[in-house]
Amino acid sequence: MLRVTFLGTAGSVPTPERNPPAILVNRKGELMLFDCGEGTQQQMMRAKTGMGSLTSIFITHFHADHILGIPGLIQTMNFNGRTDPINIYGPHWVEEFVRIMTALGFYKLKFNIKAIELHPGDKVDRGDYYIEALKTEHSVASIGYALVEKERLGKFDREKAVELGVPQGPLFKRLHNGEDLEVNGRIIKSSDIVGRPRPGRKVVYSGDTRPCSGVFVAGNKADLLIHDGTFADDMVEWAKETQHSTAGEAASLASLANVYQLVLTHISSRYSDDTSQLLEDAKKEFENVSIATEFMEIEIPYRDD
């Protein structure tokens, strides 16, 4: 399972319809937050995502709308009896942020918080997948993130294995893992039974940024690109001044990067009643695009299964 839940989709100013930025990824039961705007713990309750399996919070930058939910979330998990540690990743200042937050003294935490500073190109290795920090372009130190699953084993041709005389059982697994075997005096090559390695899935989150090479390169053939789409195209000069992206700019990047699906988020409050212009601008450049809404969920399948 790889599921993305949008808990907060607003720009800098929340609206009655949109909370500050927060995106939850559930990968095989492990929960990860990307940004954590004010009220995120309540959004998690409303979405019934749970909090106990949350292992990490990945911060894109230290503007208030992206981090003010962290103290409340920590407090809520503490009151709920959490004892497992949690990691908070982010750009420069993440260690100072965590130190100040925990030094306030009202937590009396029952679990440890570890701050890890990341720079573009750094990878957080999680075994069969990793999170890579991406260089982005915003008005303060900022990074984006790519969740990248490593290659999977190729498909195992069970019928062919049986035809070649391989008995069902442990030998199947050894062949699938790339080991050549001798069966009844005959060498059975793994490559004769196992197909090419298959790619995993990839989700890229830009955070607040201008269109940039860091997101473009990481976004190549991504299953899902979640990109800053703060403004419509007629606001491009303001987008440049505030270091955000327009819907059309984000969609153009998605098209050039050959992504499979694009979701625009960090929606300015000026579009709180109507996002049709954003969608119209984006679809001129890229068809498979949508505007994020609160509690929208996207299940990401393996595309070659």
Structure, explained:
The protein is an alpha/beta fold. It has helices spanning 40-47, 69-79, 94-103, 158-163, 170-176, 190-193, 213-218, 236-242, 247-256, 276-283, and strands spanning 2-8, 22-27, 30-36, 54-58, 86-90, 113-117, 123-125, 129-135, 143-149, 181-183, 186-188, 202-205, 224-228, 262-265, 289-291, 297-299. The chain folds into two domains: 2-152 and 198-299, 4-Layer Sandwich (Metallo-beta-lactamase, Chain A), CATH 3.60.15; 158-193, no CATH class. The protein is built from ten helices and 16 strands. It has a seven-stranded mixed β-sheet with strand order 6-5-4-3-2-1-16. A seven-stranded mixed β-sheet has the order 7-8-9-12-13-14-15. Strands 10-11 form a two-stranded antiparallel sheet. It is globular. The model has no long low-confidence stretch (mean pLDDT 93).
Short summary:
The protein is α/β, with parallel strands linked by helices and 305 residues long. It is 25% helix and 25% strand. Strand 8 (129-135) and strand 9 (143-149) form a beta hairpin.
